[in-house]
Amino acid sequence: MPAQDYDHPRSSTSTIYHDNLDIDPFQEKHTAFRDDPTIEQGINAYPDDDDGEGYTVESSRTRPRSKSRKILAILVAIIAFAGTIGVLAASGYSVPSFSSKGGTRHITMDHVFNGTFNAYSKQVDWVKEAEDGTFSHINKEGNIVLNTVRNMTTDTLLVNASLVLDLEGNQLRWTGWALSADMQYVLFKTDHLKQWRHSSFGNYWIHRRQDSVTFPVIPPKNPPTIAKCTWSPVGHALAFVSKNDVYIISEDNLSSVSSSSSSSSSSSSSSSSSSSSSSSSSSSSSSSSPPHVRVTTDGSHTIFNGVPDWVYEEEVLESDTALWWSPDGKRIAFLRSDESKVHDFKLQYYNPSDDAFKVHQYQTELDMKYPKPGTPNPTVTVHTFSLSSLSSSSSSASTTTQRLTWPGEFPLPDRIITEIGWVADDALLVKEIDRAAKDGNVVLFQFGDQRGTEVEGEIVRRLGKDGEEGDDGWIDHGQNVIPVKGLVQGYLDIVPNQGYNHIALFTPLNASKPRWITAGEWEVTEISGFDTEKGLVYFTAATPSIDRHIYSIPLPTSASNDDEADQDASMSSMTALTDTTSPGYFEASFSPKAGYYVLGYRGPEVPWQRLIEAGSGDDRADVLLEGNTELNKTISEFLKPLVTRTTIENDGYELNMLEILPPNLDITGRKKYPVLIRVYGGPGSQMVSNRFERDWHSYLAASQRYIIIMLDGRGTGFRGRNLRNPVRDDLGHWEVQDQVAAAREMAKRVYVDRSRIGIWGWSYGGYMTCKAIEADSGIFTLGMAVAPVTDWRYYDSIYTERYMSTPSANKDGYATSAVNNVTSFSGDKVDFIWAHGSGDDNVHYMNSAALLDKLTQEQVRGWRFRMFTDSNHSMDKRMAYREVYEWMNDFLEEKWGKGGTVHH
Fold this sequence. Notes:
The protein is an alpha+beta fold. It contains 15 helices and 50 strands. A hairpin with a 4-residue loop joins strand 39 (596-603) and strand 40 (608-613). It is found in: Vacuole membrane. The chain crosses the membrane at residues 71-93. It is a single-pass type II membrane protein.
């Protein structure tokens, strides 16, 4: 989707890559336990920016508990360099006291961009292969160290990991690592080469701990070809994807690499993995690399096995992987995408270097497959491979790969696979929807002894108007399925419950009706952790919608869906792990078995972070990892805007609104203030929340004395489907009406200058800005748009058709949603500027080129446009990002000057 100017990273198994496309200088910063945070072993902790007011941390007067003191002794050695560590004793977590008093210093643009107001957090990498509550870091000596919270032990996993050597004795400059499930091997990634938002390539190396031998997965390439490399959840089998084909290295083959064979030079072998025989059960491209099995043979620039193509990476899986190990490590499931019929889009690049003064006489082109509304999508199929076939030398990979089919599946050109998840060792769940996201199926595959090249599943759940959604809106998708074992067998999912997203238990595996774990007029945003032993589900919920709180709830003890008493008892036992009596925006990173969690407070006050042991014992761990003491002190020195959160009503809808007001606002009407609306507004998004934020808008409010408004209108998220659904097939209409209503509401205030009311946004927010100006409502006198969509026929098919259907089915909707009434952009009506990066692979420059053409043809003048050469959607080339804000800042200064001027 068109991204907001902040991203929400996701986690996956084995290794995790954080390649954010939209980078925000105002994001919360990590202090990592490991040298390079771009790959992590476990779950990350909170890279984002927030809204709110600051406080000052005061030292704790409470005596630490004994366990916490021991944990603290371990942690001090790890993170003392990053700030003050405190431990507080309480039945829950403890919160530092604060002072909201501001100072007298003025915020400048340098303060905004140089990190003055950055909130820091620690990156805690849970190690799922070790005892629960174990996390990793790299110490000053370069050792990879594992720390266990329960017994306060420290174990050196790898001595001097910074000096891991290749076969020729050269140091590996690795950027990430992952531990095998049996802890016998460490996987290292080198030569990281970024591709799209989540995806990258690298060379991978296996280090055997027993004898400290290191060897490549396949001989290293330049440029690297491996797009994904992941350990089995059991033992030390390895799956990897190279040149869009899937390969497996079995445990036996990995163990067969001897010290003597590894002594040969890796560079002496020039054969690649793709040249190995596709039909042999085991082959190796080099004596220094372990033998591997080539599972697929048709990988190409249009056939993707085990990794997503661009549109699936961006809009469906939101990840770099399309390969999933079964829990017992005996099978893999993978997605095969064929985009041979997807149309090409050519991206132009004028200067591949970081130096604008370097001369490149000819531009370069990047061909990418980019499906647009009404054009062919990639066709996708689901396949599995059983590792049991590797024990038979007569069996080939091609005959043991099975394609999954089911009666009533949607035609390949018209279906989207939205989720694939193992719900048991031999049971797989697949979700499909049609390309308009109106109808869908959930299909269960139970393998057992099924043989042959195809496995047939059964549809167990229906999605859409005649299914679980039960309305005319779109089918949301995510990666939410969690398998359940123990007294109750089944899986958890997030499903609409009377219009609100809630946790449902499906038991047994083929159950068609949910057993509700949560219910109410509020929404679950994430299943955060699951304690199988205790039967406890941990989740994050928007209660209220602008907050995020962490809860636990027990699973029903009965497997019967008819036991209402048991179900009611479960719901009544819902327990808050965070303080729900005051505003708060929390995130939690649970250890693999949910015995421990890192609790991140994100606002509205200055963020802090704690490591907490789950449960209610008096001796449980509770360690303050980060209090952002220096940030508290810094904020107290500056003029402080007043942040308020309220609601307004429009057309019978109650809408969340946030105001950032200048310090010492004069409400008498003697002084007048400009109003700038910051908008995003995309379906399911949220701008108004209780997150902490100190950014450009804080500068505008505190130093320029502007009033900043954010409004979440119709179509936005976390308040139920009734608020989201009205924009279906009609993007750019109701959302804009709500922004206009907010502007008119502000214009009624005596201290607002009606001649200075503007709107600005990036991506979908840029689209909203253009549509607001196009509406010619008479309320907006200024607009600024960055990287806007101007016609949904130019954007990608999967995102667009989810909300707009296909152009053939919704011809009028596409026509009215485009920016066409360009006379409204005339300089005698509005002051308007916009910008776009010529290398934007997400919202193509074509959108702005089309708007430029319309303005030229209609002879509309008085606007300004700026192209940022080669920049992508985040304006990341050659100092472009800050320049965008400086340019907009200068424009505001020119057209509006400062606010708070005396009205004559």
